[in-house]
Specification:
By secondary structure, this protein is α/β, with parallel strands linked by helices. It contains twelve helices and eleven strands.
Length: 334
């Protein structure tokens, strides 16, 4: 008889076939709900509501560092972006480039969130701007934040202030209290409100601009230097389930891989004319291109070791957490 598991995930293209039931795991009856990532993480970190879910990599590293092994991860990295390229600045703030952020007041939804972790790492290692050189303003309160749920405290040397409940990052950019936001959560979401975030969905163009005027050029530069697209989320399974049913990990992994390939085929099928003209690249039978959404440990070890090193460097964890410490054992050879 199949075991029954609850599952929470965002509306990601590589997960759509799971959420709508086109891809199902062998031996598992999966009850899926769709929600926004900030809410899923908070509900999991605070209340452990779902058996399987999307999860913040930064939060998972912090849990392991604090001895909490409630969750085991699958090497499924379906959400990737160059998060620093979404940073916004207030017009008139004097910030023309990353180096100008020194001494500025910078907003962030959750200081320890993975997008912010990657953003600070790129600022430091690619542009020489350290987190300690900015004044940080965090929108989410300790009780309504991922950080609060994992025992986050501001790292030594970091000036972190909590934004009062009556305002938010967007309003503080508009009234001149903030100079920039390293992550502006509404810009990364689809417009659906979250339980945790208060900022408005859209800010007027006359008030703010992108930190990087040519975002795509910066993304290409960063990819050339890193060699991968940073991931901020993975998938976790309740540890007690894997203790009792260790086969669940690989069966779920196979389903997620199938769903990713299903999305790839949908993209290819939509490019018929491109294929006919030889313009569709690898999606339409052209020359091989890099898999920008690789799953498995072997293809992602460099990325996972990098983010673990950045987490320790930024004082979120006491040491660099190894992938073997949080991945499901049956997934270590993938």
């Amino acid at each position: 008889m199949p075991i029954s598991l609850s599952f929470a995930m965002t509306a990601n293209p590589r997960m759509r076939a799971v959420l709508d039931g086109r891809c199902t795991p062998r031996g598992i009856e999966l009850h899926a709900i769709q929600a926004q990532a900030p809410d899923i993480f908070w509900r999991q970190l605070r209340y452990a509501e779902f058996d399987v879910s999307e999860m913040s990599i930064s939060s998972l590293l912090m849990l392991i560092d604090r001895g909490r092994t409630d969750w085991r991860a699958l090497p499924v990295f379906h959400d990737r972006r160059f998060f620093h390229s979404y940073a916004i600045v207030r017009r008139g703030s004097g910030v023309e480039g990353p180096e100008d952020l020194r001494g500025k007041h910078v907003g962030v939804p959750d200081y320890q969130q993975t997008a912010a972790l990657w953003g600070r790492a790129i600022l430091r290692h690619h542009f020489g701007v350290r987190p300690e050189e900015m004044v940080w303003h965090m929108e989410r309160s300790p009780s309504l934040s991922h950080g609060g749920a994992v025992g986050f405290a501001p790292p030594d040397g970091v000036d972190l202030r909590y934004i009062p409940d009556h305002t938010n990052i967007g309003q503080m950019l508009l009234d001149g209290t903030l100079d920039a936001a390293i992550v502006y959560e509404p810009a990364l979401l689809d417009g659906t409100p979250t339980l945790l975030d208060r900022s408005p969905q859209v800010l007027p163009d006359h008030a703010v601009s992108w930190l990087f005027a040519d975002q795509d050029a910066e993304r290409r530069r960063c990819f050339d230097q890193l060699g991968f697209v940073p991931a901020n989320h993975c998938v976790v399974v309740r540890g007690s389930i894997l203790d009792e049913h260790p086969w669940v990990a690989l069966n779920l992994y196979e389903m997620f891989l199938e769903a990713k390939l299903h999305n790839n085929k949908l993209v290819a099928d939509s490019l018929t004319v491109y294929r006919q003209l030889g313009l569709g690249g690898a999606y339409t039978g052209g020359p091989p291109e890099p898999d920008l959404y690789p799953y498995g440990l072997r293809a992602n070890r460099e990325m996972l070791e990098s983010i673990a090193a950045y987490s320790a460097e930024q004082g979120l964890t006491s040491r660099a957490i190894k992938p073997e410490e949080y991945l499901a054992p049956s997934c270590l050879d993938l």
